[in-house]
Amino acid sequence: MSSTSPLLEQVRGLLGSAVTQFRGTDVGAQLDDVLGRLDEPLRVAIAGKVKAGKSTLLNALVGEELAPTDAGECTKIVTWYRDGVTYRVMLHPKTGEPRQIPFARDAAAIEVDLGSTDAAAVERLVVDWPTSALKQLTLIDTPGIGSLSTDVSARTTSFLAPDEDRVTAADAVLYLMKHLHSTDMDFLASFHDEEVSQATPVNAIAVLSRADEVGAGKPESMDSARRIAARYRTDPKVRRLAQTVVPVAGLLAVTGETLREAEYAALAALARSTDPPVEKLLVSADRFVNLSTTVLTSMEREALLDRLGLFGVRFATTKIREGEVANAGALSTALIECSGLDDLRRVLLSQFADRRDVLKARSGLLAVEAAVRTAPVEGADALLNEVERISASAHEFREIRLLNSLRAGGIKGKPEDLDAMERLLGTSGTTPAARLGLDATADVNAVRAAVQTELARWQKKAESPMATPEMADAARVLVRTCEGMLAGGG
C-alpha cells in the first residue's frame, strides 16, 4: 500500500538516511522495520483496565469472535490481528526467532498452543486472518492495566509507553474505560510522547465501554451512557488527551455481528412468554436464569445472558414483541445500531484511517529521535535537524499543534469561533465537507463556496489588530488549511 503524501515521502527519505547511518546495528534494523511499516495499515492498539471489554470490542470491530474473552494465556500477551493471505499465528519471543505455532478454533475464539513457552517469554503473538475488516487497520489487543499480576500489566505499559530509547509500535490507541478515573488519565498521558509535533490528542480515542451496563442494564442505559460520554467530551482533562469519547456496548455489538437464527428463535419465545411475562423474568440477571418457568431451560437463558447481557435481552425481546424485528437479520442490525459500534467505526475511519499518513509520519519521526538518543552516530545532528525541519514545516503538524493548543485552552475566543476552528482542523472528519460542517453529499460548488467564506473569515481575524497573538497565529494556520482545500479542488 503505497502513499503519495508529501509529508510521508519526506519521512520515508529521512528514515532511509537514518537506516544508512545506523546500518549494521540493532538500531538500524529497528529503523528499517519502521521504514517498512510506513506502507502497512495503521496500527491501532486497544487498551484499558482488566475486564474493560477490550477483546470483546476487538471482536466486534472485526465482525468475528477471534480474540479470547476469558482469563486464558492469550489475554496476558500483546496480540496483533492483521489481514493476511492465509490463516496463521506467529509467536515472537523476547529472545530468538519468530516461529509459527498451532492454533484451533473449535468454539468461537482462537485457541493457541504455546507449547512449552511461558507467556512471560513472549513479546507478542501475530494473528494473520484474511478479512476486509483488517485491511485498513491492524488491531492490537493488550493485557489489562491494573491486573493483579503486575507482570501482565507491565506488558501493556512496556508496549504502549516504552522507555525513552524506544517508541511504541502502535500508531494510535483506543482506550476503554467504564468510568473516568485518574489512572485512566495517567495512562493516556504516558502514551503521548510530545517531542515531535505535540501530536496529542489526534492519536487517541476514548471509549466508554460496556455502556449497556450503565444504570444496571435498565432500558435507558445506552441513553445514560451517551450523556456521560458527551460530558466527558467537554472535560478539559479528557480533551487534552483524546480526540473524542464514544460510548459502545461491545457485547451487543459482537452478538449483533454474529447472531444465530436459533438465538433469535429463543428470544422470540421469551418475548411471547406469559407465564410469567418476560418483564418479570428480566427483573435481575439472577431471576432471569433461576426463576422456574417453562420458557427455555435455565441453561438456554444463561447462554442468552452471556451473549447479550440483561440490557440486550430486554432490548431484543422488546423489539420482537413490538414487531420491529421479524428475523435474525433485522435484530442483528438493531443490536449493532444500538451498541454504538457504527459510531465508533465512523470515528475510526474519519480520525484514524483518514489521518493515516500523519500518524505514520509521526511514528517515523519519533523513531529517528529515539535512535539518535539511544546510539548517537556521526551525522546524528543532521538527522535531528531534518526531524525538526519536517516537524516545523509540515502543515499537517501545524494543524495538530493548533488542535492541541485549543484542547488545552491555550486560545481564547468566542465559543462559536473555537468550535469552527476545531471542525476545520478535522475533529468531525478530515474531508472538506466534514471540515466545513456540510453534508457528505454536498457538491463541489457548495464546498468551494463554503471554503471561500471560511477563508475570508480567518484572513480577517489573522489581520485584525484586535486579535490576540495566539488567535492571529491560529487564524494563519486555518487560512493555510482553507487554501489547501481550494487547491485540492474543494
Could you please describe the fold and organization of this structure?
The chain has 490 residues and is of the alpha/beta class. Among the domains are: 253-339, no CATH class; 411-487, no CATH class. It has 21 helices and eleven strands. The two termini are 25 Å apart.
Q: What's the assembly state of these chains? A: single chain
Q: How would you sum up the major sheet?
A: 9 strands, mixed
Alpha carbon gyration radius: 25 Å
Number of beta-strand segments = 11
- Strand proportion, as a percent range, falls in 5-15%
Q: Output the strand order for the largest sheet.
A: 4-3-7-2-8-1-9-10-11
Q: Provide mean pLDDT, rounded.
A: 87
Structural class: alpha/beta
The rounded distance between the terminal residues' Cα atoms is: 25 Å
Mass-distribution shape = globular
Helicity level: 40-55%
Low-confidence stretches: 194-199
Q: Count helical runs.
A: 21
Quick overview:
This protein has helices at 6-21, 26-37, 54-62, 150-160, 182-191, 221-233, 236-241, 250-258, 261-271, 278-281, 285-290, 298-321, 328-339, 341-353, 356-374, 380-393, 395-407, 415-424, 432-436, 444-463, 469-487; strands at 42-48, 79-82, 88-93, 99-100, 103-104, 111-112, 122-128, 137-141, 172-177, 204-208, 245-247. With 490 residues, it is of the alpha/beta class. Among the domains are: 253-339, no CATH class; 411-487, no CATH class.
